[in-house]
Design goal:
The chain has about 250 residues and is an alpha+beta fold. It is built from 4 helices and 15 strands. Helix 1 packs across helix 2 and helix 3 runs antiparallel to helix 4.
Length: about 250
């Protein structure tokens, strides 16, 4: 974190507003999970999301962000993050990472899941399980008095123990009145290092993990990140408030 960056602590009132935004994200992710199946094009999932956002009168966080043209990021198989909706039709055995962000009443919500489509290869299942479990390990360390990289190390150590790698090119982030606020939250680091965690911090913790090496490349669309070695990738994210009573997962229903 740069010295001139200020971490904005949220009041209990603000955290409850963020809870509302994140519950909307969770609702939309649940609807997408039901709709994502073999034979569906990723652009259809984008249109579904857009309709759900309009119904709830909330604004997509990603559309227009640095010129990104869609509400959703949909990343298939070797795509790590920032995959763009298209006419690509999902197939049996694919894994689909979906990232949803919204702004409601001045506050942002952000979460992601990786969805298996029908029967998937064993390695893909293990990858998804490891990504999901590593997120829970990271959340468990989001406690007052811990250090930021305690979260990072909890994710990294679990992923690597299971034979996978963490992506280093992209990280989690603070969130609140802006989609991306300080501090950055890497999925790798040395325990006991980094800033001291305080009540009122709200972090988007988001392991991005690969079945092969950690390196990624960006496709010609300028957004889609894929694994350099073509291996599968999985992505999970929750928005988490740090409170005196422990981690409060705002995007968990």
């Amino acid at each position: 974190m740069k010295e001139n960056e200020t971490i904005v602590l949220k009041s209990p009132d603000e955290i409850e507003k963020m809870r509302k935004s994140n519950l909307i994200v969770a609702e939309i992710l649940a609807i997408i999970k039901e709709a994502a199946r073999p034979g569906v094009a990723t652009i259809e999932i984008e249109r579904l999301c857009e309709g759900e956002l309009k119904k709830r009168k909330v604004r997509p966080a990603f559309k227009g962000y640095r010129g990104y043209p869609y509400c959703l990021c949909v990343s298939v198989n070797e795509e790590v993050v920032h995959g763009m909706p298209s006419r690509r039709v999902l197939k049996q055995g694919d894994i689909l990472s979906v990232d949803v962000g919204i702004e409601h009443d001045g506050y942002y919500g952000d979460a992601a899941v990786t969805i298996p489509l029908g029967k998937i290869p064993d390695e893909a299942g293990r990858l998804i399980d490891a990504a999901m479990a590593s997120l829970e390990r990271g959340i468990e360390k989001a406690r007052v008095g811990n250090r930021l990289f305690d979260i990072s190390y909890a994710v990294q150590s679990y992923v690597e123990e299971n034979g996978f790698s963490v992506v280093r090119a992209f990280v989690g982030h603070g969130i609140g009145r802006e989609l991306h606020e300080p501090p950055q939250v890497p999925n790798f680091g040395t325990p006991g290092k980094g800033i001291r965690l305080k009540a009122g911090m709200v972090l988007a913790i988001e392991p991005m993990i690969n079945a092969g090496g950690s390196e990624v490349v960006i496709l010609d669309d300028g957004w889609t990140a894929v694994t350099k070695d073509g291996s599968l990738s999985a992505h999970f994210e929750h928005t988490v408030a740090i409170t005196e009573n422990g981690p409060y997962v705002l995007s968990r229903p």
